[in-house]
């Protein structure tokens, strides 16, 4: 299926904020200081009730993300997926990933063609 689009499904409910995806991407692509292919964003902390807080980390691909085209062409996963310690980033066909979106804190990244 040559026309299959691929993307990243990110379940940020369990992202620990370790920055491994950022670091692995930066090393893989040799990005200079201040440039990122994926960048960890912090959402919160926000108090949403007595003794209840909302605080998440969201790995956010940037315009420089090419889904590690060279690695994928070799049959390997994108480096952020490979190195994610919490295993919250998945790579695959967009249609399959979209079907797996069954939780509140998930995002699907699909680069423009």
UniProtKB/TrEMBL annotation:
Keyword Chaperone attached: no
Keywords per UniProt: 4Fe-4S, Iron, Iron-sulfur, Metal-binding, Repeat
Domain called 4Fe-4S ferredoxin-type: residue spans: 6-28
PROSITE patterns: 4FE4S_FER_2
Coiled coil: none
UniProt-annotated location(s): Cell envelope
Cited SUPFAM superfamilies: 4Fe-4S ferredoxins (SSF54862)
PANTHER family referenced in this protein's UniProt entry, alphabetically: FORMATE DEHYDROGENASE, NITRATE-INDUCIBLE, IRON-SULFUR SUBUNIT, IRON-SULFUR PROTEIN
Identification of the protein by name: 4Fe-4S binding protein
